[in-house]
TrEMBL record:
This is D-2-hydroxyacid dehydrogenase (NADP+). InterPro entries: D-isomer_2_OHA_DH_cat_dom, D-isomer_DH_NAD-bd, Dhydh_Halo, NAD(P)-bd_dom_sf. One of its GO terms (molecular function) is oxidoreductase activity, acting on the CH-OH group of donors, NAD or NADP as acceptor. It comes from Halogeometricum limi. Residues 44-314 form the D-isomer specific 2-hydroxyacid dehydrogenase catalytic domain. Belongs to the D-isomer specific 2-hydroxyacid dehydrogenase family.
Length: 315
């Protein structure tokens, strides 16, 4: 069987599609000799393509022979899962790859706020020497973080926070223990979970259940000296409620990697807060990402050709 794999141009949003093509054709993770694979970079012409690696969703796949779509991100909220299921198209995602990158970025946010690093960087630009007031800094050791969602991201964050001497509580749907997490709460007890935490991190997928799950009431349940971190998806937090909470000093600040609209529009008030760190959906970035994707896609090409179930299968 010959598999014709297409790499969609939208992958360019993360890395050059041609790089993934070369990894899949000649790299260490190239599917072995029994896989008869042709790989091309495609835009909107899916003629003859059996499997598609993509960043974004293109409805033209529904009128094509594509049998399997791999999305190069963990989140697949843009993909019409039920329609794909009805059309017999398999969907796989890239969860499992972002624990270290997002985990490290998240403790980076914690350290910026605790040690005041974000302020010194702004002062440097102005050539200003502004030592902190005696009560403006704190250490992470002994502080509590509440991680909402304990999948790949949440576990990566919990492990690193624990290593820094922080106490970790978590919110998850099932009560099973998770390494590095001292106390677990169900989603119904979200308020209780966040009320003692110095940091609250959102690390859940965007679904009907999680859209807007962190709004005015949840922000109000947080301590006034606490920080919100969103590395999940923008709509998981209510952005206008967050702006109000920041304006009213109801929380101490926020680190945001994801937004209701991306890129964050120029007129957004979020740009201007000194106590808000804005990053451009960058928390998972790493230069070896194409190799990680090649490994995952290479394994799934082998399974696809053998008719086996795929790794990271959503439908
Ligand atoms: P994952 O599937 O490994 O984990 C998600 C976890 O959230 C699962 O344990 C699931 O049970 C849990 N969950 C779902 N609904 C919940 C709810 N209502 N309450 C509590 N827990 C709930 O996925 P992941 O790799 O950890 O990624 C999570 C999400 O983060 C992705 O779907 C994506 O949207 C986002 N993400 C963002 C970036 C970035 O660059 N900022 C990178 C990777 C992932």
């Amino acid at each position: 069987m010959t598999t014709h794999l297409g790499i969609h141009g939208s992958v360019e949003r993360i890395f050059p599609p041609s790089l993934l093509r070369s990894r899949l054709v000649d790299g260490d993770d190239a599917p072995d000799a029994d896989a008869d694979l042709t790989v091309s970079v495609v835009d909107d012409d899916f003629d003859g393509i059996d499997a598609l690696v993509t960043f974004g969703y293109d409805p033209a796949v529904l009128d094509s022979d594509v049998e399997w779509i791999h999305v190069v991100r963990a989140g697949y909220d843009e993909f019409p899962v039920e329609t794909l299921r009805d059309d017999g198209i398999s969907l796989t995602n890239s969860t499992g790859l972002h624990g270290a990158s997002v985990g490290e970025t998240t403790v980076g946010y914690f350290l910026q706020f605790a040690r005041g690093l974000h302020r010194y960087r702004s002062d440097q630009r102005e050539k200003e020497w502004n030592p902190p007031a005696w009560d403006e800094t704190f250490t992470l050791e002994g502080e509590t973080v509440c991680v909402v969602g304990l999948g790949t991201l949440g576990r990566g964050i919990a492990r690193r926070a624990d290593a820094l001497g922080m106490s970790v509580v978590g919110v998850r749907r099932t009560p099973t223990p998770v390494d590095h997490v001292e106390t677990r709460y169900g989603p119904a007890d979200l308020h209780e979970a966040v009320e003692d935490a110095r940091f609250v991190v959102l690390a859940v997928p965007l679904t009907d259940d999680t859209e807007g799950m962190f709004g005015a009431v949840e922000l109000d349940a947080m301590r006034e000296d606490a920080y919100l971190v969103n590395v999940a998806r923008g709509p998981v937090a209510d952005q206008s409620a967050l702006v109000s909470a920041l304006r009213d000093d109801a929380i101490a600040g926020a680190a945001l990697d994801v937004f209701e609209e991306e890129p964050l529009p120029e007129e957004s008030p979020l740009w201007a807060f000194e106590n808000v760190v804005v990053t451009p959906h960058a928390s998972a970035a790493r230069s070896d990402y194409p190799d990680r994707i090649a490994e995952l896609v290479g394994e799934n090409v082998r399974r696809f050709e053998r008719g086996e179930s795929l790794a990271n299968q959503v439908v």
